[in-house]
Amino acid sequence: MIKAEHISMEFKITHDRINSLKEYLVTRLRGKLEYEEFWALKDVSFEVQKGEVIGIIGRNGAGKSTLLKVISGILKPSKGEIMVSGNIVPMLELGAGFDSDLSGRENIFLNGSILGYSERYLRDKYNEIVQFSELKEFIDVPIRNYSSGMLMRLAFSIATVIEPEILIVDEILSVGDEAFQRKSRARMLELMGGGTTVLFVSHSIEQIKEMCDRVIWLDYGQVKMIGDSKEICEHYQNYMS
Amino acid sequence: MKQKKKVTIAQGCALVIVIYSILAVCFYFIGGEQLKYTPSQEYKATEKSTTTIGEIRRNMTVMQTFIAQTDEVQRVSLLFATGGKQNPGVALIRILNMANGKVLAQKNVVLSSLANNAYTSIGFDQPVKVNKGETLGLTLNVPNSEEGKTISVWFDAGNTFQGGGAWFLNGVKQQGTLCIIYSGRDKILFGDYYWDLVIGLGILLAIYCINLVVKQKKGKRSFGLNLIATFLKYRFLLHQLVSRDFKTKYKRSVLGVFWSFLNPLLSMTVQYVVFSTLFKSNISNFAVYLLTGIVFFNFFSEATGMGLGSIVGNASLITKVYIPKYIFPVSRVLSSVINLLISIIPLIIVMMITRTPITPALLLLPFSIVCIIAFCIGMSFLLSSAMVFFRDMQFLWNVVSMLWVYATPIFYPESILPQKYIFIFKLNPLYHFIRFARTIILNGVSPEPKAYLFCLIAGFLPLVIGAIVFKRTQNKFILNL
Ligand SMILES: Nc1ncnc2c1ncn2[C@@H]1O[C@H](COP(=O)(O)OP(=O)(O)OP(=O)(O)O)[C@@H](O)[C@H]1O
Ligand SMILES: [Mg+2]
């Protein structure tokens, strides 16, 4: 389903970012375009089977989000190869492409199309999305008038209405009020039960233990450990404390 | 709910071929004469004039011979002298083939309609078919002239008609040349080979279609199939992005879409007032001339201005979801297309007010629109990728597009540059699109075949270059956003 082979991701960090033509010319003329190489991922390899739920843990800046971006095709790895079969819905951040001037209804179609849903699918599922989000009559109000919780509800409802083959989730399960959190957790479990492959980043070890089959532990861009979730989580907790 | 039937590749191809055939036939009729002939230059016997030949009497025959330089002769001009009087009667003007003396064309002109000491142009009812290089004769008689109430023509004793020719009075050869000008049109190969070309291209198209269908059946990949597949896959996204741009643009403005309508009209009015005294005399129908230029240029500046920021402006999306990045510049340009289409309405209204004839040639307008769209998409590819690396691109572009207005004949006539510097205009892609549209709108005829070629090149070459640059740099975008 997903196969990563020796993936490395390099970022070039310039100390003074060159953003203008003048700066570029000046540095070019001086002959030194100084930057530091920074490897956000180093030689990461793993395989994920269909239907598995994989947790990814690690400290801040370990490279978790970067790995998810590589898998969803947003970043091209500097080295190595990634093979993915099946359609991916990336939930790196909810509500990508929401436009604050448009109504909730219009945003459902906009955001849905960005996530790659077809028009027919969205029309069929429209009611389901509105119902799940519990926005009711607010759906025709421009979303700049929504509270941040309402916004997240709408985004979560759009992202999970589909039953994708691969779902990529980056720390988004703390959405909305308590009732909605329970509901969204249930929805995630439902998706996982339905055979969707899930890659899942969270800092809540409890959540990871509860939901995941296997865990990848990233540290400074490298795979520190990979294996059964309970086992790795214990190691991780010992390491961190 | 709307249910769209699935169209297979084979059906799609068949549709394309049918549309192609229909367009080819329609184009033949709309393009008409312009596809077969190109207007010739004016051939002038002499720049000077010394004296008139004296009154032309009843039994006098004035003749000027010249070597035909065109395939057809349509007009001749003579420098008449009428003495400022209203002369009665008519003049008979004929074109002869000197080899066999045959009369190729003749025309009666009322004497009172002739200008005094200025060239009067006389058009024949039918273009006169001649052979290039043969000697023709232009004869002038005034069959019922009355003494003191007739005309004369000027001649130049010091020069002869370039390429050969002389003038005769009652068959006797005289010194110098009469002051005449003739013009006509030349046949172009394109017209002769139009159907061969259409059939040839049709066959190529059919072969390519068959190739696509076969490849699809065998499950092979090909560039064309990929293109169709991505288009189908991202059509809905494109539609959503365009409608977002459009909706948000006017969402909180009072007049809304009406601005797209008013904007070109207002700038036309201002520029009309400012420039009409300067250039009006050189341009017939200055209002329409101006508005056509404004509508096209506004589209260009809006589309490239929006396209410029399309990648940087959508940074939050690009770093979070995988979408082919070319969607952004393309969608921005397409949203400006909607504005362009809306602003064509005021153009047509002004055409009607100024009584510019509305002809079938207007159906050719989409051609120049498609070409300018291709050009703008290409420019947006270039600009948006440059913008990712150099944020000051937007300031630079503001300046460049401001200068571009002045470099393009929008509010001034092309004739502002001497003929030999016209190539400066020709290097400017916008010039070709605007000139193409103006020929259609102002003259009501199709431009010459070369203009189509220029438009295609000016539109699609930048598109290809832009696409290549964009493709090469797009993987680095995300590291700079
Ligand atoms: N576009 C970029 N340019 C330069 N460096 C980057 C870029 N994106 C990420 N990085 C660096 O890569 C490293 C890994 O970042 P990443 O976002 O993957 O961490 P993370 O594991 O998701 O952290 P967190 O738990 O805080 O979400 C960080 O040190 C970050 O500074
Ligand atoms: Mg992260």
TrEMBL record, chain A:
Species in which this protein is naturally found: Desulfosporosinus acididurans
Stated family: Belongs to the ABC transporter superfamily.
SUPFAM superfamilies documented for this protein: P-loop containing nucleoside triphosphate hydrolases
SMART domains per the UniProt record, alphabetical: AAA
Top-level division of the source organism's lineage: Bacteria
Residues annotated as domain ABC transporter: 21-240
CDD domains xref list: ABC_KpsT_Wzt (cd03220)
InterPro entries: AAA+_ATPase, ABC_transporter-like_ATP-bd, ABC_transporter-like_CS, ABC_transpr_TagH-like, Bact_Polysacc_Export_ATP-bd, P-loop_NTPase
Single Gene Ontology MF annotation: ATP binding
Record-listed E.C. numbers: 3.6.3.40
Signal sequence coordinates: none
Gene3D superfamilies per UniProt: P-loop containing nucleotide triphosphate hydrolases
Name the UniProt record assigns to this protein: Teichoic acids export ATP-binding protein TagH
Recorded GO CC terms: membrane
UniProt keyword annotations, A-Z: ATP-binding, Hydrolase, Nucleotide-binding, Transport
UniProtKB/TrEMBL annotation, chain B:
Entry membrane topology: Multi-pass membrane protein
Compartmental location: Cell inner membrane; Cell membrane
TM annotation in the entry: 12-30, 193-214, 254-274, 286-312, 333-354, 360-383, 395-412, 451-470
UniProt keyword Iron present: no
Coiled-coil regions listed: none
One example GO MF annotation: ABC-type transporter activity
Domain ABC transmembrane type-2 as annotated: residue spans: 255-473
Signal peptide interval: none
One Pfam family cited in the UniProt record for this chain: ABC2_membrane
Family to which this protein belongs: Belongs to the ABC-2 integral membrane protein family.
Name this polypeptide is given: Transport permease protein
Lineage: Bacteria, Bacillati, Bacillota, Clostridia, Eubacteriales
Gene transcribed to yield this protein: tagG
